[in-house]
Structures
1.
Amino acid sequence: MPITVLLVDDEPLVRAGLRAVLSAQPDIEVVGEAADGAAVIPLVRQLRPDVVAMDVRMPLLDGIEATRAVLRTVDRPPKILVVTTFENDEYVYEALRAGADGFLLKRARPAEIVHAVRLVAEGESLLFPASVRQLAAEYGDGERDGNPAARAALERASLTEREAEVLRLMTRGLSNAEIAAQLIVGTETVKSHVSAVLAKLGARDRTQAVIAAYESGFVAPG
């Protein structure tokens, strides 16, 4: 089954460019387009895309609020990939905190666009881990020891020593297979640990778990 994608951007040329790049791939299908975040929820319910590639800045409803709305109101929501002009953008970090699974630069090369969609759809690795770390360092609201609320949430999670080790490796962007090689365990074992970490942190995916790790002071983003 192909990865189905919904494109949301107020610039027709951006949508056309993304459609041309993604539709050229045999394993990706663009199933719809929208010009604003306000149209996302009905289209997601109608088309059930695997991934929504969504501009972070739009005139009526931006990518941050649209992300929150989708995750709040849609059962089994899609992966959300925010599309941005500027990498070091507070809007991008807020979108990640709101629940987006990754971000993509509008100037990205075609191969990078395709890779981002595939990686976010698979959900087994972190997209652009160094950039997420940089965003957390600049825009995270925690202190050196972490945001008190985020720190308390991490303490309540009571991660085991192995789960904490897996979370640290997740912040580095390692895939399940790479974590398994690092810890000398099976991939299925790593998947179980990752699932446990997400469940204990109340995180939707790896990106949210990594954001929680930075904001709690569990790992330093700098």
2.
Amino acid sequence: MTDTEIRPWRGVLVATALPFDDDLRVDHGRYAEHCAWLVENGCDGVVPNGSLGEYQVLTPDERAKVVETAVAAVGGARVMPGVAAYGSAESRRWAEQARDAGCASVMLLPPNAYRADERSVLAHYEEVAGAGVPVVAYNNPIDTKVDLVPELLAKLHGEGLIHAVKEFSGDVRRAYRIAELAPELDLLIGADDVLLELAVAGAKGWVAGYPNALPRASVELYRAAAAGDLGTAKKLYEQLHPLLRWDSQVEFVQAIKLSMDIVGRHGGRCRPPRVPLLPEQEAAVRAATERAVAAGLA
């Protein structure tokens, strides 16, 4: 078995943007084609129902079908759905749905309806781990207000509740502390604009945003950085960073979808309450994307 078969969360897994039609209904045909296109262009897998996939504004039926569509398009081993929910029982149900659909792993935020304490976080991950599918934690203290600090991650891993963590705090120093406290816990790059720093620090994968628009260049960047080819990686990082930094902005979904439209993919509209970019934001994303295209990165 290959490394990614044993640990399917490793490599470049794209947090997929979700296409809607003119009436803002999920376009499952386009979504299936998008998942297949990403894998054809070098990505290792997809992450449906992450925040980039606007899972919060999907109905339960839509959310389940998105997972099934991704699995049908690229195979369950390449699909790691987000299973975040306000309640632990609901997150477990989504983990069970992913398991039954054939997915090899799931990604789970901590409790995010309130500022949960450590006991609540442990109980939450224990409940979802009971579904029997490997869990990748997702640390996003900016949005959830619950911080999976290295000491807590080590405890979750030590109890067998998580196998990896998507780290979105932006604090690259944590990579070294996590490696000290839980050396077998896989660190995954969680924010596009700290990719180089976390790859150098030993990250085993990237749950990525901008490959939705620029998969080949993004994969080349990750592979070079992970291999220690800093000459190649630094040049690509500098070229792509004006776009990658949008992944850490409030308007990241709109920005990535706009870049997709510019390079000839279907990004399209977002569901409310997301609104279109301001004119100056759109101009910045457009200019950075067009520079990337002109540099041959599309």
3.
Amino acid sequence: MTAETSQTLDRGLRVLKLLADTDHGLTVTELSNKLGVNRTVVYRLLATLEQHALIRRDLGGRARVGLGVLRLGRQVHPLVREAALPALRSLAEDIGATAHLTLVDGAEALAVAVVEPTWTDYHVAYRTGFRHPLDRGAAGRAILAARQGALEDGGFTLTHGELEAGASGAAAPLVGITGLEGSVGVVMLADSVPERVGPRVVDAAREVADALR
């Protein structure tokens, strides 16, 4: 901790991170041990976080992440979208295909930003808010591959016809962003993805990741 930072805020944020990493919640004693502070401090932190609905306590006294975190989370997508748009525009215009940023939302892939090329006669219509299973389509498969440490050579994933007949996709995961799983990709009406597209998608994913750090 430096002189410019708040120890109390730091502890509160650490509490939220610890609770976010468990499915069954944590007791005051468990939090006290993990934080290295006494139980009185933990009680005060939990009371404050509970007032803001950021945590909740069940009948057994275990603390869990509260619904207030979801309300904060809804504001993340517009910020992420704004940061990603320049790289997506460049990718769409360069490749001549619809570019998208996709994030994990539960067990699904959710398109949070989409940019269509301006100069093509036709392109795939792919809308913000589109959802699909993580194990279908290049966007979701790239995320899963990164999660499992099983990315293909080159760092991108290619698919054909998994989400839309006649459409091919290429996607690369966002790398090095704590707490955010996603990918950048393109979708095009083609039997296969041209060779130069995969590396270009990897570059765009790196640009988006850099913008989000």
4.
Amino acid sequence: MIGKLYLIPTTLGETEPLEVMPLSVKKVIEQIDYYIVENEKSARRFIKKISPKKSQPSLQIMLLDKYAEEIETRKYLDICKEGINVGLLSEAGVPAVADPGASIVKLAHEKGIQVVPLVGPSSILMAMMSSGMNGQNFAFNGYLPIEKGERKKAIKDLEKLSKDKNQSQIFIETPYRNEKMLSDLKATLTPTTNLCIAADITLPTEFIKTLMIKDWKHQQPDLHKKPAIFIIHK
């Protein structure tokens, strides 16, 4: 029997895991000792939090960070041939969505390994659910350009795309640049374009609000160093 690849969600911040994900995640973690992760320290901390009695020395951690060589990562699922299950953990939220874990999931399909996604918090989907915008047609665009001219063009292009396709446009920013992003959106988008800002999702400081740009001009939420999702719809 070939082992499976379990896609294991993590919390979006310092919340109790079982407040935001089902018991099935805890049960799977208690059964798996082999993990592919972005950061060993945070992965071990999450595993210990959701399953305090699990033996930390028994964990076999394989790193999928920016230093990981493809020649090595392609061997990460070889253990499945021995019938051993492997868990793929994101740094935050669900694996393989806006996350380097997608390469491991692709590898699993290539090797004929069953992929098992587990339910957990996804900041992208939770922001979309909460926005009041078109959830039938939306796109995630990752990070926008940093250079001012390129960023302005990207914002205008997304606004036009939203209008032409009736499509909600989702993107993110490095947390310490959130407030600059909001300033750029206020200065670039037309007054009647809707903007949703969803920050610190699932945390006690959660902030989710959708307003037209003309109304955002009178508001300045504290977004500094807070994980945030931005959604626009024209």
